[in-house]
Amino acid sequence: MFKTCVNFGDHLQFSVFECDLNSSEKIELESALGDIINHDEDQVIFVVLGPSEGRGDRVITALGLPYTKLDAPCYVV
Questions:
Q1: Residue 23, class by beta-carbon neighbours within 10 Å (0-12 exposed, 13-18 middle, 19+ buried)?
Q2: Among candidates 33, 46, 42, 32, which has minimal Cα distance to 76?
Q3: How confident is the model at residue 63 (pLDDT cuts 50, 70, 90)?
Q4: What is the rounded CA–CA span in Å between residue 31 and residue 49?
Q5: pLDDT by residue (tens digit) across 1-44?
Q6: In the beta sheet, which residues pair with residue 16?
Q7: What are the structural domain ranges in the chain?
Q8: Rounded CA gap, 14 and 22, in Å?
C-alpha cells in the first residue's frame, strides 16, 4: 500500500498520506488500492478535507521535518 499511496501524495506519518487529487485521480487510487488490499481484513479510509476556499485553516504542526501546506482540494488517506 505504501508504494501505491506514495505515488499519489505526501507521506505524513505511518500509513497516513495527504493527497491532492482530482476526481479521476481519486478513482485511480481507489482502484489501485482495491486491487491489493485484503477486503476481508484491511480498511482504507479517505477523509475529504474539502476545497481550500470552503474549509477553515488547517492547523498542522510538525517536529523534525517541516510540514508543507497544500492550498488545493486534498484527501488524507
A1: exposed
A2: 46
A3: very low
A4: 20
A5: 899 999 999 898 888 898 888 889 989 998 999 899 888 888 88
A6: 13
A7: 2-76
A8: 24
Q: Would the pTM of this model clear 0.90, i.e. be above it?
A: no
**CA torsion, ordered 49, 24, 39, 16, to nearest 10 deg:** -40
Residue bearing cell 481484513 = 41
Integer Cα distance of 15 and 7 in angstroms:
14
Question: Considering only CA atoms, which of 50, 51, 7 is closest in space to residue 31?
Answer: 7
- In three-state form (DSSP H/G/I as H, E/B as E, the rest C), the secondary structure along the chain is CHHHHCCCCEEEECCEEEECCCHHHHHHHHHHHHHHCCCCCCCCCCEECCCHHHCCCCCCCCCCCCCCCCCCCCEEC
Residue 44 cell numbers, joined = 482504507
Cell of 54: 470552503
